[in-house]
Amino acid sequence: MSARLRARPLLITAGLLVATLLAGLLVGAADLPFTGVVKALVDRIPFVHLDSGLGPVERNVLFELRLPRVLLAALVGGMLAMAGAGYQGVFRNPLADPYLLGAAAGAGVGATLVIVLIPGDPGFGVPLAAFVGALSGVFLAYVLGSTAGRMNGAATLVLAGVAVSSFLAAMQTFIQQIKAQELQRIYSWILGGVGTADWQQIWMVGPYALASTLVLLAHGRLLDVLSVGDEEAASLGLSASRVRLTVLIAASLATACAVAVSGLIGFVGIVVPHVVRRLAGGSYRVVLPLSLLGGAAFLELADLVARTAVAPGELPLGVVTAFVGGPFFVLVLRASRKQVET
């Protein structure tokens, strides 16, 4: 098991991400030339001037429609995968999910409230409410888990997350019944997607995504220490509870960023970290950065499938990831069971 991030897997993952980003920029109803797209992107670099040959309409399609979409898909995929790796490190469970502590349910309540109560929402209300709701759900789960008992902190926190998620899901269902005519918009958001991506959404969650990314990457070595046990960590002068709390906050913030701008997209936080562990080793100094890049590439690829599978229509992104993640989750569960039996 390698404890260092080697250049080869990093370059392979980064190359895969670049390839999927370019594919996302090229695929669509409007045909854009490859060389023209590349030149137009390079032309945006300071002190570099290239004639891309793209017309005004083509440039508008590239920079106002496709580029925000591919960047948002990369941000959402990277945040969910890295948050999943962080949760799995804290709970020492490869099946831990970014939505474990009530982030999804809280975001659902926040988005539903705006859709139902503010019909003329200008566009930023739903992401903002989902962001606040996701953080609120995690906060409630943590408070409940902290006050319920300290004998088994991780297990108590998970149970608190389940309780909070159930309560918030019931609240969301109740709110939906107030205005049943808005169910289509609500379920469209719940199924997830980045089809309405714009620069405002990226700038809104970008700073929080950057902060959570830096914190999680900085805690890779500490999560490796925690994986050998709390007593060993304490003997090295490491506060296990402080590290877990910091990682939980950062992973929850990353999850909230993703949910706020994309809705609920499942399985990314399970599939990507597990594949990374299989291919590059189990050290979190490796898993966290490769999950960030791999999650971005995975969701870019899923978005390409969502755009093209039923063209000119579009599949919800959460449906595409569920088609991949559902069978994958079963395989991971069977593998974990065999390990326990042996």
Automatic annotation (TrEMBL):
<feature type="transmembrane region" description="Helical">
    <location>
        <begin position="124"/>
        <end position="144"/>
    </location>
</feature>
<feature type="transmembrane region" description="Helical">
    <location>
        <begin position="284"/>
        <end position="302"/>
    </location>
</feature>
<dbReference type="Pfam" id="PF01032">
    <property type="entry name" value="FecCD"/>
</dbReference>
<dbReference type="InterPro" id="IPR000522">
    <property type="entry name" value="ABC_transptr_permease_BtuC"/>
</dbReference>
<comment type="similarity">
    <text>Belongs to the binding-protein-dependent transport system permease family. FecCD subfamily.</text>
</comment>
<feature type="transmembrane region" description="Helical">
    <location>
        <begin position="245"/>
        <end position="272"/>
    </location>
</feature>
<keyword id="KW-1003">Cell membrane</keyword>
<feature type="transmembrane region" description="Helical">
    <location>
        <begin position="70"/>
        <end position="87"/>
    </location>
</feature>
<keyword id="KW-0812">Transmembrane</keyword>
<feature type="transmembrane region" description="Helical">
    <location>
        <begin position="156"/>
        <end position="175"/>
    </location>
</feature>
<keyword id="KW-1133">Transmembrane helix</keyword>
<dbReference type="InterPro" id="IPR037294">
    <property type="entry name" value="ABC_BtuC-like"/>
</dbReference>
<keyword id="KW-0472">Membrane</keyword>
<feature type="transmembrane region" description="Helical">
    <location>
        <begin position="99"/>
        <end position="118"/>
    </location>
</feature>
<keyword id="KW-0813">Transport</keyword>
<feature type="transmembrane region" description="Helical">
    <location>
        <begin position="314"/>
        <end position="333"/>
    </location>
</feature>
<protein>
    <submittedName>
        <fullName>FecCD family ABC transporter permease</fullName>
    </submittedName>
</protein>
